[in-house]
């Protein structure tokens, strides 16, 4: 029963005295906006004196956060009644929990003092992100404070807290720590991707880095961190004047990034619209700022671009664009953050209350997702490269196989051709030998009919001359290399034939130190045939004798010496011998050489000639 | 004594004519000069020759070795090849028919004579001849007179070329042992470089006079005389 009465009492008290905040030393944090009173001054002319007059009707407010969107064209007056029910003097910090409001005037009626803070009139010694005011309430004292909040350009979001000092600074420290964490993470991502850009020269990375920098810039402004470290008012003015940039830059860079990353060129219609929006958006946003008047269309334009990008990303994802999945995931997160900020700025829903770092977390996650997307792109590029390499290898193999087949076919053709040529050569050789046989047969048949010895002798000599030719042919026919003839083999075969015809009692000594050139071999052979025939026929009276045959080559000069130890002859009388005429002719016209005959001791014939240069 | 009957298979009539002339000089009876398998078989069926002089290339289509193989299906008649072919393939194929000789065109009369005479000696089995015991027996009734380097079949002198004599002498001195090709080449050609076919051609020529069985070859190494039984 007592409990019920107490509750009832509290309930009525809160209605009657709903606009009185009781403070004590124990309570660490009290939200006081919802127990304050609000007056909207649309004239923007009212002063504190005007406000404290009775005719101003403050309205009771029960919202903990009030959002009025971008630069509302009115001043917001907040009346706060504070009472110290304790017996001790209570000192508190009143926090205006938003750093973006440009002008905050804090009035203490009891002391008739005013303090100014806000983005455009920041207290020099402030170390907190949000503006703060110190309140001192004596035991059992009631105090009324007024806050006049107005903002130009930036969003107006009002939230008021009363803190125990220590608690506030702890909280502030924590807040700054989380922000530092966020900015650190973003900066690292930016640096990391900047290096990737430098090494890969892929423009997507550059846009991504710029996007992250823009986000950092935006968040520096949005969280107010930027302003507590900047002391120059002109600079702050400049930054505030172009605050719209902080909103549009991340979106522009994100669009550029998406455009390159998703390769929107493959969707020509989207690509055209995207390019158009990319040009028009900065103009729509920047022109009013430069012209110096406010613009309400900037949010709309950003929104259009963002929604279009989202549609494009969804479209790409539907088109099975692998990169689009990542972007879409990032988009969902970033879009929710933007939506949250928008809702918060309109005062519809204050996410800060439930998750104060939602935006920062969203941005970080999104940045990480995009980083992963870029890594994936590297991966897929690597995969493409590997595939291309593999294809190249396969192609090479196919090409090799094709060449091999071609070579095989060519070789086969060549082999067939070679076989044909070999067969033809065999045929020709065979015919030459057969023809030679026919000639020899004819001569031998003819000589059978001759009884005259001298004539028979002539036929025999002729046979031996033919033999000299056909032996050479036989030698060449058995060899693969036909440029040189083994002189010893050739000569000894010829001599063997002569020995068979005449006598084999004469010792024939060979000293052959050279091979003959094929072109000169036939002449040499016939010369040898003639000279040795002469020696065998005429040189020896008995069955004993020696014939020396020597062939040598000095550089390019051949020397053939045929010597016998027989009776010799008188050169004068033998000049007309056909054999010698033949030798003479061959030496001079065929070999272009020199011949010296010495008939003093036996017969020595020395012939020299030069090698033919090819 | 009957005349040795010879059938000439030769498509070149001039060469055939010369062969006929030379064979008749050697007191042979030339049964005919033909150039086709049909004529050869006809001729054989009329009268079996003691020797067939066989050309290898006959016209465009016929081959002497094939004809020989056909003949050998029914009867064994001594074959003496006379051909312009001197390539290994043809020679190996020809030797597979076990001929009494292989003469390469253009041929020397002496070669023809030696081959024919040897066959005639073999065919005409006279009464036991008086053989000089100093002569080295080579088998198959061949003998070699080492000091004079003369070859005999029974008591018939067979003319050999200088290198043929030299080769045979070296093989006899080796006493049936294997003599490497190199050793033979060095000895016969006095260290002069020769083509590998030279020694082989020489051995073929000698085989034409000695028959196929007396000289044995170990391929890739050398020659030796077949051991006597």
How many helical elements of chain B? Answer: 8
Poorly predicted ranges of chain A? 9-18
The largest sheet of chain B has its strands arranged as 2-1-3-6-7
Largest interface: A-B, 34 and 30 residues
Main sheet record of chain A = 7 strands, mixed
C-alpha Rg of chain B (nearest Å)? 18 Å
Overall domain count of chain B? 2
Shape label of chain A: rod-shaped
**Element order, helices and strands of chain B?**
EHEHEEEHEHEHEEEEHEHHEE
Secondary structure: number of strands of chain B = 14
What does this protein structure show overall?
The complex is a heterodimer of chains A (614) and B (229). Helix content of chain A is 56%, strand content 18%. Chain A has 614 residues and is an alpha+beta fold. Chain A has 3 domains: 19-163, Immunoglobulin-like; 174-390; 484-610, Histidine kinase-like ATPase, C-terminal domain (Heat Shock Protein 90, 2-Layer Sandwich). In chain A, strands 1, 3, 4, 6, 8, 9 and 11 form a 7-stranded mixed beta sheet that branches. A 5-stranded mixed beta sheet of chain A has the order 15-17-18-20-19, covered by helices on one side. In chain A, a hairpin with a 4-residue loop joins strand 8 and strand 9. Chain A starts with a helix and ends with a strand. Chain B has 2 domains: 4-123, Response regulator (Rossmann fold), CATH 3.40.50; 136-225, Arc Repressor Mutant, subunit A (Orthogonal Bundle). Chain B is built from 8 helices and 14 strands. Chain B has helices at 13-25, 37-46, 64-72, 88-95, 109-123, 162-173, 181-188, 196-210; strands at residues 4-9, 28-34, 51-54, 57-58, 62-63, 79-83, 101-104, 136-139, 142-145, 150-153, 156-158, 179-180, 215-218, 222-225. Chain B has a 5-stranded parallel beta sheet with strand order 2-1-3-6-7, sandwiched between helices. A 4-stranded antiparallel beta sheet of chain B has the order 8-9-10-11. Chain B has a 3-stranded antiparallel beta sheet with strand order 12-14-13. In chain B, strand 6 (79-83), helix 4 and strand 7 form a beta-alpha-beta unit. The longest helix of chain B has 15 residues, at 109-123. Chain B starts with a strand and ends with a strand. Chain A binds chain B through residues 426, 429-430, 433-434, 436-442, 444-445, 448, 466-467, 470, 474-475, 477-479, 486, 488-489, 492, 496-497, 499-500, 504, 510, 512, and chain B through 12, 14-15, 17-18, 21-22, 57, 84-87, 104-110, 161-163, 189-190, 192-195, 197-198.
């Amino acid at each position: 029963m007592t409990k019920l009465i107490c509750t009832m009492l509290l309930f009525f008290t809160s209605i009657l005295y709903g606009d009185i905040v009781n403070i004590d030393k124990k309570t660490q944090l009290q939200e006081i906006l919802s127990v304050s009173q609000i007056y909207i001054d649309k004239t923007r002319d009212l002063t504190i004196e005007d406000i404290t007059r009775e005719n101003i009707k403050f309205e009771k407010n029960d919202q903990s956060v009030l959002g009025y969107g971008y630069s509302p064209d009115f001043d917001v007056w907040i009346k706060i009644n504070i009472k110290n029910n304790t017996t001790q003097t209570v000192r508190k910090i009143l926090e205006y929990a938003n750093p973006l409001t440009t002008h905050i005037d804090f009035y203490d009626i009891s002391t008739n003092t005013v303090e100014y803070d806000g983005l455009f009139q920041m207290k020099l010694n402030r170390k907190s992100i949000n503006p703060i005011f110190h309140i001192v309430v004596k035991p059992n004292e009631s105090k009324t404070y007024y806050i006049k909040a107005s903002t130009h350009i930036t969003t107006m979001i009002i939230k008021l807290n009363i803190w125990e000092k220590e608690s506030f600074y702890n909280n502030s420290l924590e807040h700054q720590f989380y922000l530092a964490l966020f900015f650190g993470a973003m900066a690292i991502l930016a640096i990391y991707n900047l290096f990737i850009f430098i090494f890969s020269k892929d423009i997507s990375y550059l846009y991504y880095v710029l996007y992250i920098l823009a986000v950092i810039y935006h968040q520096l402004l949005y969280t107010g961190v930027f302003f507590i470290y900047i002391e120059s008012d002109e600079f702050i003015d400049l930054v505030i004047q172009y605050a719209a940039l902080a909103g549009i830059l991340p979106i522009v860079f994100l669009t550029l990034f998406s455009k390159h990353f998703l390769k929107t060129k493959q969707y020509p219609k989207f690509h055209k619209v995207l390019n158009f929006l990319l040009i028009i958006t900065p103009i729509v946003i920047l022109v009013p700022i430069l012209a110096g008047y406010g613009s309400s269309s900037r949010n709309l334009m950003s929104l259009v671009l963002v929604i279009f990008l989202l549609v494009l990303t969804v479209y790409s994802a539907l088109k099975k664009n692998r990169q689009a999945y990542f972007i879409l995931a990032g988009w969902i997160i970033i879009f929710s953050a933007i939506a949250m900020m928008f809702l918060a700025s309109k005062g519809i829903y204050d996410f800060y209350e439930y998750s104060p770092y939602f935006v920062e977390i969203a941005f970080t996650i999104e940045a990480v997702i995009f980083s992963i997307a870029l890594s994936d792109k590297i991966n897929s590029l690597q995969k493409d490269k590997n595939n291309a390499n593999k294809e190249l290898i396969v192609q090479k193999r196919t090409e090799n196989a094709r060449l091999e087949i071609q070579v095989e076919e060519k070789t086969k053709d060549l082999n067939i051709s070679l076989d044909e040529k070999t067969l033809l050569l065999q045929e020709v050789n065979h015919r030459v030998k057969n023809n030679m046989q026919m000639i020899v047969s004819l001569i031998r048949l003819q000589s059978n009919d001759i009884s005259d010895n001298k004539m028979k002798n002539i036929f025999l000599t002729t046979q031996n001359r033919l033999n000299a030719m056909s032996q050479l042919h036989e030698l060449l026919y058995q060899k693969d290399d036909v440029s040189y003839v083994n002189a010893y083999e050739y000569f000894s075969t010829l001599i063997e034939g002569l020995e068979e015809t005449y006598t084999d009692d004469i010792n024939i000594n060979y000293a052959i130190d050279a091979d003959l050139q094929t072109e000169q071999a036939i002449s040499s052979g016939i010369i040898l045939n003639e000279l040795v025939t002469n020696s065998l026929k005429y040189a020896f009276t008995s069955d004993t004798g020696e014939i020396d045959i020597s062939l040598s080559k000095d550089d390019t000069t051949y020397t053939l010496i045929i010597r016998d130890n027989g009776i010799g002859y008188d050169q004068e009388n033998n000049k007309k011998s056909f054999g010698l005429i033949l030798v003479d002719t061959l030496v001079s016209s065929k070999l272009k050489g020199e011949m010296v005959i010495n008939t003093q001791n036996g017969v020595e014939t020395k012939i020299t000639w030069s090698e033919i240069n090819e | 004594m009957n005349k040795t009957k010879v059938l000439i298979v030769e498509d070149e009539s001039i060469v055939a004519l010369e062969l006929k002339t030379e064979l008749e000089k050697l007191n042979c009876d030339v049964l005919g000069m033909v150039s086709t398998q049909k004529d050869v078989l006809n001729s054989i069926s009329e009268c079996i020759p003691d020797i067939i002089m066989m050309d290898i290339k006959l016209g465009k289509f016929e081959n002497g070795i094939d004809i020989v193989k056909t003949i050998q299906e029914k009867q064994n008649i001594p074959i003496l090849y006379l051909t312009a072919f001197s390539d290994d393939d043809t020679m190996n194929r020809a030797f597979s028919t076990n001929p009494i000789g292989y003469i390469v065109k253009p041929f020397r009369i002496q070669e023809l004579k030696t081959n024919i005479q040897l066959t005639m000696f073999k065919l005409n089995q006279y009464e036991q001849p008086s053989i000089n015991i100093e002569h080295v027996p080579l088998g198959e009734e061949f003998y070699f007179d080492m000091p004079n380097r003369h070859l005999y079949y029974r008591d018939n002198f067979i003319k050999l070329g200088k290198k043929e004599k030299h080769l045979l002498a070296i093989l006899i001195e080796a006493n049936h042992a294997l003599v490497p090709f190199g050793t033979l080449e060095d000895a016969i050609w006095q260290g002069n470089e020769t083509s590998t076919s030279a020694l082989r051609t020489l051995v073929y020529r000698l085989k034409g006079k000695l028959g196929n069985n007396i000289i044995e070859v170990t391929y890739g190494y050398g020659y030796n005389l077949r051991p006597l039984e």
